[in-house]
């Protein structure tokens, strides 16, 4: 049975519409004689215009789930749909085109190009996708994350929180259907983390963005519309919006 997340929907959420759907997905690593199962028969549907946090103990399959949902990894069995399109058996070229057009990524390590300015980093995915780059559009995206006056700065000239906001602006530049975030606040201090989480919340509520976020931080998960808990590669619990204490309590039970 597919786990359809029941959540407190933001204004952008579309009832009944799944931005991401996994049906009986498994992902194995290794050989026939020494196999590790990272995902084990996972079925999950994430509504459009919602923010879902994925949590679980170390090694539970969180990042593998995100990578499979985003088409970064091929599943061993099962089916993955992204924006209504079945990407399970898509070619590398098709997946690359889809990611450039429909998907945005934000990682803990920012992954900015150190030799480029903030504006140039934001424009990079547009250029790679062969999209004509408008300086006004790039500056508007930076302004939307509160960095209108930092466009000419290189990453080394920005704080960690500012670098992550540039990374979010870069991810949003192509107006993706889904934003995948892997520990987006993991390298930030608490103040910067709150700023970044507030920005993600605004993207969902004001612009109808769909976000799938892997995190180990209960405070970050509490900002999402729903939380999915993994253990040993399986979905073992899910809920609508929870407080940080409720998230921490559920996670502690999985880790005990």
TrEMBL record:
<dbReference type="Pfam" id="PF00005">
    <property type="entry name" value="ABC_tran"/>
</dbReference>
<dbReference type="GO" id="GO:0005524">
    <property type="term" value="F:ATP binding"/>
</dbReference>
<keyword id="KW-0547">Nucleotide-binding</keyword>
<dbReference type="InterPro" id="IPR027417">
    <property type="entry name" value="P-loop_NTPase"/>
</dbReference>
<feature type="domain" description="ABC transporter">
    <location>
        <begin position="20"/>
        <end position="255"/>
    </location>
</feature>
<keyword id="KW-0813">Transport</keyword>
<dbReference type="InterPro" id="IPR015854">
    <property type="entry name" value="ABC_transpr_LolD-like"/>
</dbReference>
<dbReference type="InterPro" id="IPR017871">
    <property type="entry name" value="ABC_transporter-like_CS"/>
</dbReference>
<keyword id="KW-0067">ATP-binding</keyword>
<dbReference type="InterPro" id="IPR003593">
    <property type="entry name" value="AAA+_ATPase"/>
</dbReference>
<dbReference type="InterPro" id="IPR003439">
    <property type="entry name" value="ABC_transporter-like_ATP-bd"/>
</dbReference>
<dbReference type="InterPro" id="IPR017911">
    <property type="entry name" value="MacB-like_ATP-bd"/>
</dbReference>
<protein>
    <submittedName>
        <fullName>ABC transporter ATP-binding protein</fullName>
    </submittedName>
</protein>
């Amino acid at each position: 049975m597919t786990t359809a997340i029941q959540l407190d929907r933001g204004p952008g959420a579309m009832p009944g519409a799944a931005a991401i759907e996994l049906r009986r997905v498994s992902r194995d690593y290794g050989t026939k004689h020494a196999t590790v199962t990272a995902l084990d028969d996972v079925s999950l549907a994430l509504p459009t215009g919602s923010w879902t946090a994925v949590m679980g103990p170390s090694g539970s399959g969180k990042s593998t789930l995100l990578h499979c949902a985003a088409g970064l990894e091929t599943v061993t069995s099962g089916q993955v749909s992204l924006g209504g399109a079945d990407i399970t058996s898509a070619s590398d070229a098709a997946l690359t085109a889809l990611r450039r057009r429909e998907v945005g990524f934000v990682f803990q390590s920012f992954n900015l190009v150190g030799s480029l300015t903030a504006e140039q980093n934001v424009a990079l995915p547009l250029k790679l996708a062969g999209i004509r780059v408008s300086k006004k559009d790039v500056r508007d995206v930076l302004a939307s994350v509160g960095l209108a006056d930092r466009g000419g700065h290189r990453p080394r000239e920005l704080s960690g929180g500012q670098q992550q906001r540039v990374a979010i602006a870069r991810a949003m530049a192509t107006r993706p259907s889904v934003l995948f975030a892997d520990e987006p606040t993991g390298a930030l201090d608490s103040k910067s983390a709150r700023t970044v989480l507030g920005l993600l919340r605004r993207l969902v509520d004001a612009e109808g963005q769909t976000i799938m976020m892997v995190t180990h931080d209960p405070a970050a998960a509490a900002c999402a519309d729903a939380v999915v808990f993994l253990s040993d590669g399986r979905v073992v619990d899910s809920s609508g919006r929870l407080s940080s204490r409720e998230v921490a309590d559920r996670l502690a039970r999985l880790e005990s």
